[in-house]
């Protein structure tokens, strides 16, 4: 596996752990619909959260959250619409980004709620 893929996989696992510690249940990971993928789908009470995880090992090219493009956000929202429809969800939804910056053995996690608003 390429190093950037491994970094991304580890970041997604860390983001899931982070959300669990905040009281969320992780419903699914790497949900795919057509050309879109949602990294994590989590729930807390009657709130369904679609999460894009971005992990970087440095900020030379910008912070992790800056790598979520408009196109990526649209794809995530399209996949979320499909998930909501197929799971008959009738409560609140939110789109978040979890940005993880890894530097050696240290890491910084930033949870951005309502990131696509």
UniProtKB/TrEMBL annotation:
Keywords: Endonuclease, Hydrolase, Nuclease. CDD domains: PoNe_Nuclease. SUPFAM superfamilies: Restriction endonuclease-like. It comes from the Bacteria. InterPro entries: Restrct_endonuc-II-like, tRNA_endonuc-like_dom_sf, UPF0102_YraN-like. It comes from Spirosoma oryzae. NCBIfam families: PRK12497.1-3, PRK12497.3-3, YraN family protein. One of its GO terms (molecular function) is nucleic acid binding. Belongs to the UPF0102 family. This is UPF0102 protein CLV58_12085.
